[in-house]
Design goal:
heterodimer, A: alpha+beta, 4-stranded antiparallel β-sheet, 43% helix, 14% strand, globular, B: alpha+beta, 4-stranded mixed β-sheet, 10 strands, binds flavin-adenine dinucleotide
């Protein structure tokens, strides 16, 4: 695409956003219910949220880079970047947030059958089904392949038994993408990547309270859950082959890590100017730390840009998302330490109106999970050692 | 512009990398000249080769006989210089002085550019006046005198000053020491009477001068750019030099890191290859992440310089600050992970530590540049 085509697309996009993005949707996200997750049980917070979601859905802008036949807008990488930039320029909220978009979708695009793509990708793009991720188990966190949840082959269906843990939003999700052991003798090649309905008989969830005071995640129990092997012609319940789900799981983790890394802009903003303005006189040593942080954030921003550019043309090392996740999440934790330090006693408030219900302290606590969820920092460093630096025995 | 090299730049990187690893290697250049106590601190034969490769005129316009390339390309060469610790006047002559000459009159260009391009002569720049980089303050004075100027004052840390046939000097022609305006740049020839060098060897075995100007008489045509209006050119030089020294620092960091990772893949202790110990693996992987980030922001800054972006100044300081931090980490981890052998002169890892130290001070250290980032961001 030529630069002039791209500039025309930019102008068109700007006009479209101007006409279609309600002012309320250009405000920063303040609370959990400012985020629209879709799904069977979803409700809209207000009319603006509904209108913004629907207009984006109809244009394919919930998943702009996906092909049109799967509910996307079929944008080229360059066009998608323009859309991202233009949305960022007006502070537009994402119309739809979902594990389907960030995680399952990319895996289906890569490994799914045509039938699976037609059905599930369209459902995801249209925000009809909310997904959750069933990977971790009480005994299998970093060492994920040691998982024990077992699916017994019963001919036309499996019977799944076991327990998952840390399943984010399991209690709000409609369906689960779940790692299930289907061969006990083979560690890596005995795992199947299954999709099934959380409303199935035998599935139950129990929320777990986080240190931030909210409880987005759950223990999830499977008690003789019957999972059919097929949901229709060319729509098997598993993604990829039976017993070869580990490849799918790893591919998906790459996307999850990329997303958590905040490389696409989430973790790149500077804070020094805003914090000193908001909090008045600031200790010179803290100011120096803020300056060092801003240097690191701007540098990481450049890395994020380079990473996304390289991913698009296949120049990035396949293990690079691990590095991005490591660096991005450690940076984000530092950001919130500094926000707390600059905020002083006000930042300690747990429920006041002035702090939007204790937002600084709750966010600060929530970010501690960044270097745990989707694989810990230590595990990221292990992967870099092994796959990029090629260190022995790693 | 995507943040990776295009085909031409990739080709240049391959060429520069092979050339520097062969001709500019530590053994052939740094150690060779150091062990002979060479008063220049670099090899003129290699510098001639730089000219033959076209490196000397990368930043000189095509109309003026150069290659008319940009900061991204100059940085590609600088990264390889850093990796091989190649002593050369590339940064001072072909980046800083060349950037100043870009803004000179045709007479100035005609007088100085040919020898710069041919590699027959090298040039230096005199900016700092104390032990830390503070270009906001210029006290060195040039007073009107007849058709020309009379220069008096002192300059510090003039890299390869004694070997430079001409030195670009930032001096004050009006106003007080802390004023932005009133600065003028002069091309001062080596043989100007009243100029004296106190040349010293630095920790990285490069040479630098303390220069004293004692009523040095200069013609009117020694002026580069406008009288009293030199600040913009000085700033352009500083940005190019900072982004360039960031690139060299990335090279130093990568060189030290590669050497260290190689070493821990070979060395055995406790019956194991030490690279198997997670205590070392995690630090090496952390270092790798930081080096990649430092490299990305340096490429970004170079692209902004080439694009004439308003953000170039900010990102130049971000790059310089980030690289200084990361290269410092790389050389410290390098020496530590080498164990006792890292302390020996025979092993190259210590040479990286020395070069990094000198590079950190050049055109502002990480603290100075982090401070600039804060100021430019309004706090
Ligand atoms: C907010 C949040 C949301 C999550 N959402 C989901 C979800 O939706 N679905 C899901 O399946 N999971 C989810 N997780 C789980 C997450 O993926 C796991 O917590 C993570 O993989 C770590 O596993 P673990 O908690 O068992 O820690 P462990 O594996 O027990 O690790 C404990 C500590 O030991 C370290 N460690 C472990 N192995 C090594 C090693 N080899 N070398 C060095 N150090 C090591 C770890 O780095 C960590 O510091 C979520 C977690 C959080 C915090
Ligand atoms: C200035 C100086 C003076 C000295 N004087 C003396 C002296 O008078 N007499 C004398 O006998 N010796 C002396 N030494 C030697 C000194 O004791 C050794 O250098 C030191 O014990 C380290 O051993 P090494 O150099 O073989 O490094 P190595 O053991 O090869 O270590 C290389 C790197 O690997 C790391 N490493 C090694 N094993 C592990 C592990 N299991 N887990 C994690 N990391 C590991 C080390 O920490 C180091 O970073 C001196 C050394 C120096 C530098």
């Amino acid at each position: 695409m030529s630069d002039s085509d791209l500039e025309a697309f930019r102008a068109e996009t700007r006009a479209w956003l101007e006409a279609n993005c309600p002012p309320e949707m250009r405000e920063p996200v303040r609370d959990e219910d400012d985020i629209y997750w879709g799904g069977r049980k979803a409700t809209f917070k207000n009319d603006a949220q509904k209108a913004w979601f629907e207009v984006c859905r109809d244009k394919g802008y919930t998943v702009p880079a996906w092909p049109k036949e799967y509910g996307g807008a079929g944008l080229s990488p360059a066009e998608a970047k323009v859309l991202r930039q233009e949305m960022a320029a007006i502070g537009a909220r994402p119309p739809l947030s979902s594990f389907g978009i960030w995680m399952l979708g990319p895996a289906l695009l890569h490994f799914g059958t045509e039938g699976q793509k037609q059905r599930f990708l369209n459902e995801i793009a249209r925000g009809e089904i909310r997904w959750c991720q069933g990977y971790s188990e009480p005994g299998s966190g970093s060492d994920l392949v040691s998982l024990q949840t077992f699916g017994e082959d019963k001919g036309d269906h499996w019977v799944v038994n076991g327990q998952k843990i840390w399943t984010s939003y399991a209690d709000k999700a409609d369906w689960i993408f779940c790692l299930v052991r289907t061969d006990k003798d083979n560690k890596y090649q005995g795992i199947t990547f299954m999709l099934y309905d959380m409303a199935s008989e035998g599935v139950s969830t129990k929320p777990i309270l986080l240190i931030s005071g909210s409880s987005p995640f759950c223990e999830t129990f499977f008690d003789d859950v019957k999972v059919p092997k097929s949901y229709g012609e060319d729509i098997p319940a598993q993604v990829g082959e039976v017993n070869r789900g580990w490849d799918v799981a790893k591919y998906l983790l790459g996307h999850e890590r990329e997303m958590i890394s905040g490389a696409d802009g989430g973790n790149t903003g500077t804070i020094g100017a805003a914090l000193t303005r908001a909090n008045g006189e600031i200790d010179p040593v803290l100011r120096a730390e803020l300056a060092q942080f801003d240097v690191d954030a701007l540098a990481y921003g450049a890395m994020g840009e380079k990473f996304l550019d390289e991913i698009k043309v296949g120049k990035a090392h396949p293990a690079q998302p691990n590095m991005m996740k490591y660096a991005g999440t450690e940076l984000n934790k530092r950001r919130h330490e500094l926000i707390m330090a600059a905020g002083g006693s006000h930042a300690l408030e747990w429920e006041s109106e002035e702090t939007s219900g204790g937002k600084p302290s709750r966010n600060w606590l929530r970010t501690k999970a960044n270097s745990i969820e989707g694989g810990t920092s230590e595990v990221m460093l292990n992967v870099i050692s092994k796959r990029i630096l090629d260190l022995p025995g790693a | 512009m995507p943040l990776y090299y295009d085909d031409d730049q990739t080709m240049l990187a391959d060429t520069a990398s092979a050339f520097m690893a062969e001709e500019g290697s530590i053994k052939n250049q740094l150690r060779h000249w150091r062990d002979r106590n060479c008063k220049d601190g670099f090899g003129h034969a290699l510098w001639k080769q730089f000219a033959e490769m076209g490196f000397t005129g990368m930043l000189v316009d095509e109309d003026d006989g150069g290659l008319g390339m940009g900061q991204v390309e100059a940085n590609i060469v600088l990264e390889e210089i850093g990796r091989n610790l190649t002593p050369s006047p590339f940064l001072s002559s072909s980046v800083l002085a060349a950037t100043a000459l870009k803004h000179g009159s045709n007479d100035v260009k005609g007088r100085w550019l040919p020898d710069l391009l041919s590699g027959d002569k090298v040039y230096g720049v005199a900016i700092d006046e104390g032990r830390k980089h503070r270009p906001e303050r210029i006290a060195c004075k040039a007073e009107k005198s007849g058709n020309g100027f009379k220069l008096s004052g002192k300059k510090d840390f003039v890299v390869y000053g004694a070997s430079s046939e001409m030195i670009v000097v930032a001096a004050r022609t009006s106003g007080s020491d802390d004023d932005a305006d009133g600065v003028t740049l002069f091309a001062v020839p080596q043989d100007a009477s009243g100029m004296s060098h106190d040349s010293v060897r630095l920790v990285d075995s490069s040479m630098a001068s303390h220069i004293t100007f004692d009523g040095v008489e200069l013609d009117g045509d020694a002026v580069i750019g406008e009288v009293d209006g030199g600040r913009d050119v000085l700033n352009a030089m500083l940005v190019a030099g900072r982004v360039g020294s960031a690139a060299e620092g990335v090279g130093v960091a990568r060189g030290a890191m590669d050497m260290t990772v190689d070493y821990i893949k070979q060395r055995k202790q406790f019956g194991k290859i030490i690279g198997e110990f997670q205590a070392l693996q995690h630090r090496a992987s952390h270092l790798y992440s930081e080096v990649e980030i430092a490299r990305a922001v340096t490429v970004k800054a170079a692209q902004l310089v080439d694009g004439g972006s308003e953000k170039a100044d900010l990102m130049a300081s971000v790059a310089k600050a980030k690289v200084a931090k990361v290269a410092g980490l790389a050389v410290r981890e390098g020496v530590q992970m080498h164990g006792g052998i890292g302390m020996t002169d025979e092993y190259d890892i210590g040479l990286y530590m020395k070069r990094d130290r000198a590079l950190q001070e050049f055109l502002g250290d990480q603290y100075y540049h982090a401070g600039r980032v804060a100021e430019m961001s309004g706090y």
